[in-house]
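[Meeting: bench + compute handoff]

Bench side (C.D.) handed over the final construct sequence. Compute side (W.E.) agreed to return the predicted structure before the next meeting so the bench team could plan truncations. Sequence as handed over:
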Amino acid sequence: MSRETKAKPKAHEQIPARFQQFGKKYPDIMRAYEALGEATRQAGPLDSKTRCLVKLAIATGALREGAVHSHARRALHAGCTPEEIRHVALLATTTLGFPSMMAALSWVEDVLATQ
């Protein structure tokens, strides 16, 4: 008799526990947030990969570590390459400055190191 086991999701595929806990505690807010996200995705012509890279760039520009982690994971899931994801961080150099780019690149590398 064979036992089927579920493969543990890779780290870059895992939804952070804090996000999951928030959804359980505030399900109405989470549903509204997810509906808003879906509406914004459908509002324009960008494909999934492009949207993911744009969202990563926005998170990078806002210097939001958790959001950079999240959007780097999403970009991988959408089929973006590690080189494309790193390029987003590198492009921040002349806009945000070298230290900010280095911080964002380190957050991207956190995710890429788990693949």
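W.E. noted at the follow-up: The helical segments are 17-25, 27-42, 48-61, 65-77, 82-91, 93-96, 98-112. C.D. will use this when planning the next construct.
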